[in-house]
Amino acid sequence: MAVLQQELTLGEAADQLARGLPGHRVEILQGRLTVTPPPDGSRQLALTKLGRAFDRAGIVAAGQEYVQGVGLWLPTLPADFAIPDFSVVDEDFRDAHVTKNYYAPNVFRLVVEITSSNWSDDLGPKVECYAQAGIPVYLIADRKHDEVLLCTDPVDGAYPAPQRFKRGQSVPLPESVGVSLDLSVDTLLDGEG
Fold first, then answer.
1. 137: how many CB neighbours lie within 10 A of its CB?
2. Could you give phi then psi for residue 96, rounded to 5 degrees?
3. Beta bridge partners of 114
4. Of 8, 14, 67, 68, which is most buried with the most CB atoms under 10 A?
């Protein structure tokens, strides 16, 4: 008996993986499918505390919102998209819907990734993709190397060398985010503090 196999597009394969792996985050970066395992408690606590810090800083009064796990359409390749851990977006970001659950990069002011087992994606392809998309600020809580990296102001599709911050320090966010805020490295790395 012959078995017919249908070739899937990259987007269809991503959809199948997402349905088959509940709790995992499926993304397409530079034409490559990536799968992130479900988050751990420290990462989620760091994101909760990050949201509280933005609330205290008056993010809504500044005309911005913060969201977790909202799709970011990437102009790098036709099927590329990412799902950042945390983003600061314009309050009307939903008007910038591109396709599925992905929104245009021009409404994103800040993207935050807290690394997990596939940390190399956050430090490699995502740096390139977010810069090419023109994301003004990309903050990486690099738990593998126990530091926070701040990438800002991409020029010609690339970020200049990142600023690096160690435990005990605070990361001052650029004005382009919309609020004045210094973030604790320790809180970003493990939810402490």
1. 22
2. -100, 30
3. 141
4. 14
